[in-house]
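Review form for a predicted model. The reviewer records the input and the model, then writes brief findings.
Reviewer: anonymous (R2)
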Amino acid sequence: MAKNFEFKQAEKVRDTFKKYHVRYLFLGKSGAIILGYPDTTQDADVFIEKTAENGKALVKALKKIGFKLNKIVEQEIIRGKDFIQLRNGPFDLDLIFAPDGIDSFQKAWSRHIEISGFFVCHIDDIIRSKEKSNRVKDRESLPRLKAFRDFWIKQKL
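Model under review:
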C-alpha cells in the first residue's frame, strides 16, 4: 500500500534542491497542498526547468535525498525527458519537464508563489495542468481545486 506524501518530505526536496541550485516548482496536488489545499497525495509532482545544467544538479540532489538512479534514468533527467516517475527512494516523486497546459518553465516561474521557501506553481497553472491532462482522477478533483482557488484568492485580497 502506498504511503501519503508528507510535509517533511516536501521540506527535504525544498532544502536539498536549494543546496544544489535546482530550479523547480511544486505542481499538481502536492503544490496545491503546500498552498493550503486540504487533501493528501501519494507522491509529489515537481516541474523541473529543462536544461542540462539543471538536470545534472537534480541528479546530485536526488542521490543526496536517497533516490537510487541508474545511468539510464540519470541521462533521462539530464536531457529532460517529459515525465519520469521515481519509486525507488524514500518517497514517490514525479519529475515533470513538460506538464500539460503549461507553455514553459519560464512562464510558470513568472507566476509562481513562494511560501516558506517552497516554490509552487500558481493555483491557476495547477488547475490548467489538471484540465489538460484529462485523467479521470484529475477531472474528479477539479471542482474542489477550483473552489479552493476561489477561497485562496479571497484570502490574498
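Findings: DSSP finds seven helices and six strands in the chain.
Further findings: The two ends are 41 Å apart (CA to CA).
Recommendation: see findings above.
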